[in-house]
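Workshop exercise sheet. Pairs work together: one partner reads the sequence aloud, the other fills in the structure field after running the prediction. Swap roles for the next sheet.
Pair: D.N. / O.F.
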Amino acid sequence: MRILAALLGLVFSLSACAQEASSEYLEGKEYVLLEQPVRTADPSKIEVAEVFAYSCPHCFDFEPLLQAWEKKQDKDVAVVQTHAMWNPQMEPLVRGYYTSLALGIKDKTHMAVFKSMHLEHKQILTPEQWADFFSGYGIDKAKALSTYNSFGVTSQIKQAEARVRGYKVTSTPEMVVEGKYRVSSRLAGGHAEMLKVVDFLVAKSRAERGTKAPAQ
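Structure field:
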């Protein structure tokens, strides 16, 4: 009986180890460690950054998953989004996104832009088209146009381009944790799997900081 109990104990121990190992992700396999970290917006938070593009259908599919994931996060996690600009033709979309941030209506318009482009097949590419779109959310068209063309929005675009270069991102959507751990759906094996790797990296970042998730 003692031998049987010992064998059963060994089996359970190996099973537990296997389960623990399955929750581990490896640098260079499921995520990449950047050689040069990118400064985060708020060092007091564990930053989870997504690089996306309104023109990207995969980003449209990923957005509901990201929003649901964000709602479950503790207060020490900050989710930020950066619009990629692979070529000058993308600038109207990038400028539209940062205009929505400057106007304080991004939460209302973000998914609506995706739906307009990918479900209704409408293009929002000119300043006037963006002003018309934002007017549907209570924004005066003149204010929308002046914000769209403002120095502040232009500065945000330049900062976004610098972040994307620093992240070494080559496709969308991709995510970067703490400005140094980059995760893609290709490496992770899918959109849902990418968020699981991010969960692992958030926990890893807490351990590196010597902190715990704040009490609910």
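Discussion prompt: The two ends are 46 Å apart (CA to CA). What would you look at next?
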